Amino acid sequence: MGAYIPPGWPAGVHPPGSEDFESTAIGWLLDVVPPDYRLHGVLRRYPVALATLARYHSKACVEGARQGYRTARTELAGTLPPHAIDTVLAAYRKEGARLAATAEAVDLVERALRGEVFTPKMSLPPTVAGPQSAEPGSAEPESAEARGAGPEAAEQKPARAKPEQKAAAQRTAKAGAAKERPTGAETAEEKAGGAKAGTAERGRATARRNSAGRGRSDLART
Fold first, then answer.
1. What is the count of structural domains for the chain?
2. Which of 73, 110, 167, 184 could form a disulfide with 51 if both were Cys (CB 3.0 to 4.6 A apart)?
3. Measured between alpha carbons, how far is 112 from 10 in angstroms, rounded to an integer?
4. Per-residue pLDDT tens digits for 128-185
5. What is the pLDDT of residue 120?
6. Quick check: is 96 in a domain?
7. Looking at the domain assignment, is residue 26 inside a domain?
């Protein structure tokens, strides 16, 4: 089984751990750095040193391309026509992508030269969206009126009940209590009220009898 090659591995460099890995890595790294670095035999004898130098060089190239892209319109305005500046920016974008890919490949080669073993990463299965799930950003934010989240809604107090409403509520409560009370059960207030009503009725009957007696006496004297 061959060694695992991670994504972004440079073409022409043999897999890590293979017989020709180190020699092919040296040749490729010498193509990344400026040509004069080939004059230094120490870089061939110690490939890790060459890879470290190539890493710094490639990252500096990426940063230089980004800085040139950001300032191209300002620095070239008045010197180049607008369509030429657009072409320069397109060249920055194309070469910038290539330089970024090279810097990533240099990092992989250096890690392999230092003895790192690459293994494939397990990819998680995509999450199946349920019937109630929504795509990110698909739901529109609710308005403050719909949520009732405005400051007026937060400080709003329940309205006070009017006297007529309180009286109706009391009558409803009394009616409900009367329905729930067993037949024949009387409250103390009802008993006292009945006693008072009986006493008043007896008093009125006595008054009527006395009045009738006085009437008869008057007739007898005439």
1. 1
2. 110
3. 12
4. 444 443 334 433 333 433 444 444 444 444 445 556 666 666 776 666 655 555 444 4
5. 87
6. yes
7. yes
